[in-house]
Every structure is written in structure tokens, then in C-alpha cells.
Amino acid sequence: MARAGLSAERxxxxxxxxxxxxxxxxxxxxALARRFGVKDASLYSHIRxxxxxxxxxxxxxxxxxxxxxxxxxxxxxxxxALTAFADAYRAYARRHPGRYAATQIRIDxxxxxGSPAMRRTAEITYGMLRAYGLDEPDLTDAVRLLRSTxxxxxxxxxxxxxxxxxxxxxxxxxxxDALHGALEHWPREKExxxx
Length: 195
Fold this sequence. Notes:
0% strand; single chain; 195 residues; 9 helices
């Protein structure tokens, strides 16, 4: 395949496909170059290094994921929005395991100032949680609870970590219901300080 036509966007999209096929940790510049039939050096005029590729892949997958979530939560609030958000999150993690893994890396915000994907993720997530009447710093705490619950469940499910005979779908629905209850009865920081 000729070098002409290579671009950062094409390379990142191919890296996303590769991550789903072989696993996020197995995406390398060499594997990506082989996919295009070029030498590794040909990629470096489009992607600076492996860290640059990982950041671009994380932003690409994160943007894709939040777009799916945004469609699911549109026009919903409260429990319905939370359930739609959770289900879309889990569906993306199951359908795109390599891309999902890319979304879990920590990205220094100074490396990607004004990232549309990061901004949209915050807007959709915080918007959904504001329906529960949460403000900062409780919003940040609630986001951390949701992310750790969703991520933990998805990772355990992906690795076969749920060995009990209990139906996993039922456990997922109960977990989301429990999160809804926790959000409705959130111990607000202002109330704790006043009490």
C-alpha cells in the first residue's frame, strides 16, 4: 500500500481497529505500519511517538464512546438517564474492548487543551448528574463513584470474573438501581459541614 494517503486520522482509526482485534497493549507503531504496508519511519511524519498515538487513540475512542452515550441519554433524566448512560457505557466496553481500554489512560489536560472529546464527556456526565441536584464538589465524587463502578463491572465481566451462577444482567440492573438510590440520597458536602 502506498504511503500517500496516510494521515494522523487514518492511523488513529486503524489503531482503534487494531486495539479491538489484538488488545490495546499490543498496539505498536510496528503493528500499525504493517497494517499499511509501510516502514515504521513512515508513521513518524504523522504521529510523533507511541505516547502521541496512545493519547490520540484515547481521545478518539473517548469521543466515540461519549457520542454513543449522548444519543442514549438524550431527552432522559434521573433513573432513566442513568440507566441509559450505564447501558451505553457497558455496551461500548463490550463491543470495543481495545478502544475502551484506551479510554482508561490518564491524559494530562495540558497536553490536549480544549479537547472536544474531554469537554463533551464532562458536559454529558455532569449534565446527567445535575438532575440529581448535585453541585461541586459532590459532582466530582459522584462521577468517581459511577466511573469506578462501571469500569470495575466491565473489567470483571470481560475477564470472566463473575463466576457465581447469578445472572450477570440482573446484577448489572441491581448495581445501576443502587447507584440511582445513592445519587438520590447523596450525602452533600454542604449539609455535612452545616450539620
